[in-house]
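Q: For a teaching handout, I want to show students what a protein-ligand complex looks like in token form. Below are the inputs, and the small molecule is phosphoenolpyruvate. Please produce the holo structure.
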Amino acid sequence: MLIVGNWKAYVQSSEKAKKIFAAAKRVGGHAGVQVVIAPPAPYLGMLAVGNRSKVEFASQDVSLSTGGAATGELTAAALADAGASYAILGHSERRAMGESDEMIAEKVRHALANRLKPILCIGEKERDQDARYLSGLRAQIAAVFAPLSQKERMQTVIAYEPIWAIGKTAAEAITPADLGEMVLYIRKVLSEYLPGRGAEKATILYGGSIEPGNARELASGTGVDGFLVGHASVDADTFSRLVKALY
Ligand code: PEP
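A: Here is the structure, written as tokens, with phosphoenolpyruvate included.
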């Protein structure tokens, strides 16, 4: 199970950052899980220095800029150098700020060029009765996967995050049955880009109100490879309980 804690902009003090990281290190040493945390960039640098634990780091985004005269931009190269090994890209909160599929595809290429494994977020705003949202998901994958090489496609993690389930409670998250269907659908779309057993082996995460109370049931029998966790990743005790539920 790959468990990625997306701290978003919830964490705004180094004291809190250190406390959650300490908890992540304690639970992240277990053989059955790989814990990755995505702190705000200043804390990523602070925590990654000298990190010898099993916990890895993700950036919450990368810049479209590759460097130079671009004040305020966080380049993939700088984030990788600061200690990130993954990059969350195309998160719905960034898409809502105007990021297009083309921009996200470009960012995925920057991430890969700097040895950051992209975590590509896809997800529908709502579900229509005719299931047109499925073609929207297919288009989000196609925009990024089509230009990539086979090797780059294999390195790209998919995070299925239905927007209607983000930032709610466990009771409002997806059901295990629906998640199982979505994982199958995403693997079917991926099989158009990954020949052989590539789509079977691809890493697919679910995100949207994962909490200690629903992590286990959503992990069992759904075919999902892990979770992208938002609000439940920024409280040390809650995050520990969530990770332990997946041992
Ligand atoms: C997210 O936004 O990536 C997310 C999964 O948030 P939450 O867990 O708070 O729904």
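A: Two things your students might notice: The beta strands are 2-6, 34-38, 56-59, 86-89, 117-122, 157-160, 204-207, 226-229. The mean pLDDT is 97.
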